[in-house]
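Thread: KCNA2 isoform 7, structure

OP (GT): Posting the sequence first so everyone is looking at the same thing. Length is 245 residues per the record. Can we get the structure tokens written out before standup tomorrow? I want them in the notebook alongside the other entries.
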Amino acid sequence: MNIIDIVAIIPYFITLGTELAEKPEDAQQGQQAMSLAILRVIRLVRVFRIFKLSRHSKGLQILGQTLKASMRELGLLIFFLFIGVILFSSAVYFAEADERESQFPSIPDAFWWAVVSMTTVGYGDMVPTTIGGKIVGSLCAIAGVLTIALPVPVIVSNFNYFYHRETEGEEQAQYLQVTSCPKIPSSPDLKKSRSASTISKSDYMEIQEGVNNSNEDFREENLKTANCTLANTNYVNITKMLTDV
């Protein structure tokens, strides 16, 4: 078990202990402590156990690496959105202040409208009615699009980097597996494998004869190479002697 599992299980045992220690008169009155309500909320942590699937999914692993490498850009995005929400919620509040049926009674109430507008979701539950409010809303939507679009290329670049690195690693592993040649058994290995295998005597004699022929060919090639090298050396020495004379 990891930390998520422990946090998800602890509320059950705490609730069980408090219920067992609860007095009968308190139980009849139906009094519940605020701590129990908080523990019930903590139980939602068990939902995060779904992230265990990332162990078996390359795509989720790449996504996690991308988000981890893009934390700075994501932090800047949240910071810019926070500044925009404060500015445009204040602007729309003052633009709608003189309207009797204004849907923006305070600046904190306008935060929700600013977030929805900057993220281009547009629920429509809060809308400006005056000309000034509509102008502020238009600027808020445009600023939100530009703010979100700025860090996106960096995040996409990080994703492409980790994706190509993963695919290249898989291709290289497959290439090495295909191009790796098996070890050629030597004569002692053949003798050992003879006793452990079920091949017939004639097959074994053919394999042994092939190995001996290969060794003889290899020796002949070495002798030819050595003779050629010796002849070349003698020719060079004779030529040098004639030149000196």
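GT: Both are above now. Quick notes for whoever picks this up: Residues 187-244 form one domain. Residues 26 and 117 are 49 Å apart (CA to CA).
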